[in-house]
Amino acid sequence: MSQNQICVVGVGNMDCGDDGIGGAVIHSLENIQLNGVIPIQASGEPASLIELLGEHKTVVLIDAIDRITREGTIHRYDASNEALPAELFSNYSTHSMGLYDAIEMSRVLDEL
User: Fold this and answer.
1) Euclidean distance between CA atoms 43 and 22, whole angstroms
2) Would you state the pLDDT for residue 43?
3) pTM for this predicted structure
């Protein structure tokens, strides 16, 4: 487990419009040197997200969510202390499980 580093994970597909926001953030982080920050691009596949959540003490996930608030609104949650609000995450996903499910599965498996 990486105790002193922050893993920043950009979730999504750069080729799919707003779903590419995570990748855009990771691309910008790769162009600058930040000590202790590990930028990772992830497709959102739940098993790999669960693995990342278990490997690093601090993980920041960047992802687009279903627009129920004004465009560009940033939502911050500390999933290690409380469950995420499920209503912010779309029921429509290209994955059988989405980001919300992966985080909550990590909590159940005590990997968060």
Assistant:
1) 9
2) 83
3) 0.72
